[in-house]
Amino acid sequence: MGRMIIALVFAVTALQAYPEFQKFSQTHSRRTVNCGMCHASPEGPDGLSFGQVGSLDSVQMDLLKEARRAQRPGMEVSNPILNPFGNKLVQVMGVRLLVDAKKDPAMLHYYLKDAGDMDGDGVTDAQEFLDGTNPNNRHHGDPLALLLTNVQHHFFEIVMILLATAAGMFGLSNLLLAFAAGGKKP
Question: Among 9, 98, 115, 172, which is least packed by CB within 10 angstroms?
């Protein structure tokens, strides 16, 4: 009886997993993308490990059911098998639009374009979906975009370091010139 319930849960969960999004992101970005972009577990929602349906207690199962009822955009969810980005997708699009987007996964980019930047790395969540990078991790993204963002965020510190280095080099060169001039006899 217990195995039959677990099998039923896995069958229902398979209807809630959207590998089309992973495949689209992976194909578009040419990067390896796992289920961890949206799910709490990189292996996806099915299984018995942390963040998978088989590991949920009764309270978490209630949260899962509630999240699956979030059909319209704008509904806040706390789905225990999704990570913050996955929950944001449900909030921005609603379950109904997410299911429709399985036919055209590029729709996620369209709906996310104004949804911001969860991890604050300067790369929008929509772009991270296209780039196949993790929108939950501010250290994971296109290297050039992250470099430019960090230069913008730390511009003052970079200028101060360059000025301090230039002043130090100026002082050191004058000190060495003074030592050289002090060693000469007229």
Answer: 172
pTM (predicted TM-score): 0.69
Q: Name the residue ranges covered by the structural domains of the chain.
A: 2-140, 154-182
Q: How many helices (H) and strands (E) does the chain have?
A: 8, 0
Q: Is 69 helix (H, G, I), strand (E, B) or coil?
A: coil
The one-letter code for the residue type at 142 is: D
Query: Which pLDDT tens digits describe the chain residue by residue (186 residues)?
Result: 544 444 444 444 444 557 888 888 888 888 888 888 889 888 888 888 888 888 899 999 999 998 888 888 888 899 999 999 999 999 999 989 888 988 999 888 888 888 888 888 888 888 988 898 889 888 888 888 888 888 988 999 999 999 999 999 999 999 999 998 876 665
